[in-house]
Write a structure and sequence with these properties.
692 residues, alpha/beta, seven-stranded mixed sheet, 20 helices, 7 strands, transmembrane, membrane, transmembrane helix, cell wall biogenesis/degradation
Length: 692
C-alpha cells in the first residue's frame, strides 16, 4: 500500500470549496487488484476480467434459483409418490390382505425377530446416550467389578454385552460363514454358466438338422409330414384364449397331418361358451380342432394333459406340441422344431425360447425379464448344448410321444409336472435340444400378487419332486456324473441352496449382525459380490442395465417367498400342492386385435351407406351394448393387497439400519435402508399393476 503523509490531508481540506457533486455509476466496470510490492503495479497482468459486486450477486441468485428448483422438484416427486401411495392404499380393504393360512410359521418367526430387535434397539439407544460405547471405542473396557457398575440398567447392559459376545456371536459367525460359502459356490456356478454361454456365442454352436430335407408345400409332399398333435391346456383364461387358439390354428402344416386339442378346465360356464364358440369358428374354416372339457379338475394341468393323451386317436400321432393359453407361436414354429427329430431317434424334446410382449409394461415386468432372459439365454442354452438336459418349461416345446409314454406319462404328484416328466425322460436316456433362435410370444405377470403365486409354485414344486425322485435317480442306470449333476446342481444348488442362502444371509444374518457387531459381515459380501452377480444376470438383457440396483434389491425381496416355498415343498408344509392359475392381462392380444380392427373396419361413411333402417337400429343397439360394457369395465375397482411377511421384514431391516447408525457403518446402513424401503414398497403392493 502506498505511504500516506499528513500534509496531503491538510492540502485537501484547504482546496475543497464550492458545492459538492456526487457522481453515481450505473454499471461500474472496475476490478480491485491487490499489489503486494511497490513495483507490483507495473508488472504485466493477466487479461482476466474482474467480477463486480452486482455480477457476484447475480451468480449467487442463479445458484439459489437452481437450488430452490431442485428442492421444489424433489418435493414434487415426494408429494406425488405419497399421493400415489395414498391412492393405492385407498383401494385396500380387509379382504385385500394376504391370506397366510398354514404358512403362518414364517410370519410368526419374523414378528418375533422384529419384536426382539425393537427391544434391543431401545436398549442400545439408552446405553449409547449414556456414553457406554464399549464396542465402538476400544479404549473403554467393559466393567467387571461391582464398583464399576453405575446402576441396575448398567448391570443389565454389561450382562447383555457378555451374553452377546460369548453365546450369540459364535453361532451367528458359524452360520454366516456357511452361507458365505454357499454364496460363493453358487456365484462360481453362475460364472461357469456365463463362460459356457460366451463359448457358445464365440464358436456359434447351434443345434443343426442332420437330414437336410425341408418340408415343402408341394403336391404329393403331404405324406412326408409327420403327424403332430397340438395341445392348448387352459383354465378360466378369458383374457387370452382367443389369441392362442387363433395363433395355433394358423400354424403352417398340412391340415390332414395336424390335430389341435383345446383342453378347457374352466369352471365358469360363460368362459366355456366363449372357448367353445371360438373352436367352432375355426372348425368351420376347415381347421382340424376339437374342444375337450373335464367336469372334475383333478391333477390340475398334469391331469388335463394326461386325460387328453388317453384318447384312442392319439396313437396315430408321433409328436405333440404344447402351448399355454397366453402363448402365440409363429406360423413356422413346427417347421423350425419338428425337423430336428429327423435322424435322431434318441431325441425326446425340442424346446423353444419365450419372448415377452409386455416386458416394458412396468418395473415388475422389466425385472422379470432380466431373470427369464438369463434362464433361457444362459442356463437353458448351456445345459442343452453341453448336457442335452434341462427342465422342460411346460410350454412352447415339442415332445416325441414315444418318449412321454416310456417315461411314464404325465403324473399328478407335484405342481411342476413339466420338470417331473423332463427328469424321468432324462433317467430313461432321452436327450433334449434347446432352440434359442425360435421364440414364442407370451406375457409375464404384471401384478406382484400373480408373480408371487407363480414363484411359490415354481419353487415349492421342485422340492416336492426332489423328495419323490431322489431314490429313482440313485438307482437309475445313467452315468454317475449325470446323477451328480441332477442331485447337486439341478436340485440342490439351483433349487434349494439359492433361496436358502439369499434369505438367510441378507434378511436374517445381516440384521442380526447390526445388534451383534462381533459377527459383522464384510463389505464385499453385501456389496461387491452381489453387484458382480447382478451384472452377470443382466448380460443377456443389456438394455436392462439401468435397473441393476432395483434388480438386486428386488431379488433379495423375493427371497422370502422363494424360501417359504422351498421349505413348504421340502417338508410338505402349508400350500405346497396348491395350484393357482397365473392371472393374465391379455396384453399380447390388444395390439393384434386393434390392428385387425383397423384393417377390417371400413370408415363410418362406407359402413352406413346403403344401410336400411332395421340395420341402422341393430347397429345402434350394438353400440349401446358396447358402451354399457365399457362402463362396466371402468367401474371395476382394483384392490391392493397387504403382504404381511414383506412388511414385517421391512420394519426389521429399517430397525437394523437405525442400529447401524450407532456404529457408523456406512455401507451396511445404506444397504439396509434401501432394502428395507424395497420390502416396504412390495409389502404395500406398490410395485406392478393392481389386481381387479
Amino acid at each position: 500500500m502506498a505511504p500516506r503523509f499528513g500534509f496531503s490531508d491538510l492540502w485537501a481540506k484547504e482546496t475543497r470549496k464550492g458545492t459538492p457533486v456526487v457522481v453515481t455509476m450505473e454499471n461500474p466496470n472496475y476490478s480491485i487488484v491487490e499489489v503486494d510490492e511497490p513495483d507490483g503495479a507495473f508488472r504485466p497482468m493477466e487479461r482476466s476480467r474482474g467480477k463486480n459486486v452486482k455480477q457476484v450477486t447475480w451468480v449467487l441468485l442463479l445458484k439459489a434459483h437452481k437450488a430452490v428448483g431442485c428442492l421444489t422438484w424433489l418435493a414434487t416427486v415426494f408429494w406425488s409418490l405419497l399421493g400415489s401411495v395414498k391412492r393405492r392404499l385407498c383401494f385396500t380393504h380387509r379382504l385385500g390382505s394376504e391370506r397366510l393360512g398354514r404358512d403362518r410359521w414364517l410370519f410368526s418367526a419374523i414378528k418375533l425377530f422384529l419384536a426382539a430387535s425393537l427391544w434391543v434397539l431401545v436398549f442400545e439407544l439408552i446405553a449409547y446416550y449414556r456414553g457406554w460405547h464399549y464396542f465402538k471405542n476400544p479404549s473403554l473396557h467393559i466393567p467387571t467389578s461391582k464398583l464399576e457398575i453405575q446402576s441396575l440398567f448398567h448391570l443389565l447392559y454389561v450382562g447383555w454385552l457378555t451374553l452377546r459376545a460369548d453365546y450369540i456371536a459364535p453361532p451367528v459367525k458359524a452360520l454366516s460363514k456357511f452361507c458365505i460359502v454357499l454364496f460363493l459356490v453358487q456365484s462360481v456356478d453362475r460364472l461357469i454358466l456365463c463362460l459356457g454361454c460366451f463359448w457358445i456365442k464365440y464358436k456359434k454352436i447351434k443345434p443343426r438338422v442332420i437330414v437336410e430335407e425341408s418340408y415343402d408345400d408341394v403336391e404329393g409332399a403331404g405324406s412326408e409330414y409327420p403327424m403332430v398333435l397340438v395341445q392348448i391346456p387352459m383354465c378360466n383364461e378369458r383374457e387370452v384364449y382367443e389369441q392362442s387358439i387363433s395363433a395355433v390354428c394358423q400354424l403352417d402344416w398340412p391340415k390332414d397331418r395336424i390335430l389341435i386339442q383345446v383342453l378347457d378346465d374352466s369352471d365358469d360356464e360363460s368362459i366355456q361358451e366363449l372357448i367353445r364358440a371360438e373352436v367352432t369358428k375355426w372348425s368351420q374354416k376347415g381347421v382340424n380342432i376339437i374342444y375337450r372339457h373335464r367336469l372334475v379338475r383333478t391333477g390340475y394341468k398334469a391331469g388335463n394333459l394326461k386325460s387328453a393323451m388317453s384318447c384312442d386317436y392319439v396313437e396315430a400321432y408321433e409328436f405333440v406340441a404344447i402351448f399355454d393359453a397366453d402363448f402365440q407361436p409363429n406360423s413356422d414354429f413346427l417347421k423350425l422344431t419338428v425337423p430336428h427329430f429327423k435322424g435322431k431317434p434318441e431325441l425326446g424334446l425340442v424346446q423353444a425360447r419365450w419372448a415377452f410382449v409386455n416386458k416394458d409394461e412396468n418395473l415388475l415386468t422389466r425385472l422379470q425379464n432380466i431373470n427369464l432372459c438369463f434362464h433361457f439365454e444362459v442356463e437353458q442354452q448351456v445345459n442343452g448344448v453341453f448336457l442335452n438336459f434341462f427342465g422342460f418349461n411346460g410350454t412352447a416345446g415339442v415332445w416325441r410321444i414315444k418318449a412321454l409314454e416310456e417315461s411314464g406319462g404325465w403324473l399328478e404328484r407335484t405342481t411342476v409336472e413339466d420338470m417331473d416328466i423332463a427328469v424321468r425322460a432324462h433317467l430313461h436316456g432321452w436327450k433334449f435340444i434347446y432352440l434359442n433362435d425360435v421364440k414364442v410370444l407370451c406375457e409375464v405377470p404384471e401384478s406382484y400378487e400373480a408373480y408371487k403365486k407363480q414363484q411359490h409354485r415354481w419353487h415349492s414344486g421342485p422340492m416336492q419332486l426332489f423328495r419323490l425322485c431322489l431314490k429313482s435317480i440313485l438307482t437309475s442306470k445313467i452315468a454317475m456324473w449325470k446323477k451328480a449333476n441332477l442331485i447337486l446342481l439341478f436340485f440342490l444348488l439351483r433349487k434349494l441352496i439359492l433361496p436358502f442362502y439369499s434369505f438367510t444371509l441378507f434378511c436374517v444374518i445381516l440384521p442380526i449382525t447390526m445388534f451383534v457387531p462381533e459377527a459383522e459381515l464384510p463389505v464385499w459380501v453385501i456389496c461387491y459380490v452381489p453387484i458382480f452377480m447382478s451384472l452377470l444376470n443382466i448380460l443377456p438383457a443389456p438394455k436392462s442395465f439401468p435397473f441393476i440396483v432395483p434388480y438386486l434389491l428386488f431379488e433379495n425381496t423375493m427371497s422370502v417367498t422363494k424360501f417359504n416355498a422351498m421349505v413348504s415343498g421340502l417338508f410338505q408344509l402349508g400350500s405346497s400342492y396348491e395350484w393357482i392359475v397365473t392371472k393374465k392381462a391379455g396384453r399380447s392380444s390388444e395390439s393384434d386385435l386393434l390392428g385387425l380392427t383397423d384393417k377390417e373396419m371400413p370408415p363410418p361413411s362406407q359402413m352406413l351407406r346403403g344401410v336400411s333402417d332395421s340395420e341402422l337400429l341393430e347397429i345402434s343397439q350394438v353400440e349401446e351394448e358396447q358402451k354399457k360394457k365399457k362402463k362396466q369395465t371402468v367401474t371395476v375397482k382394483k384392490t391392493n393387497k397387504i403382504f404381511h411377511k414383506e412388511l414385517a421384514l421391512a420394519f426389521l431391516l429399517l430397525t437394523a439400519a437405525v442400529r447401524s447408525l450407532l456404529a457408523s457403518q456406512g455401507v451396511h446402513f445404506y444397504f439396509l435402508l434401501f432394502q428395507g424401503l424395497t420390502f416396504l414398497l412390495v409389502g404395500l403392493d406398490l410395485i406392478g399393476e393392481q389386481m381387479s
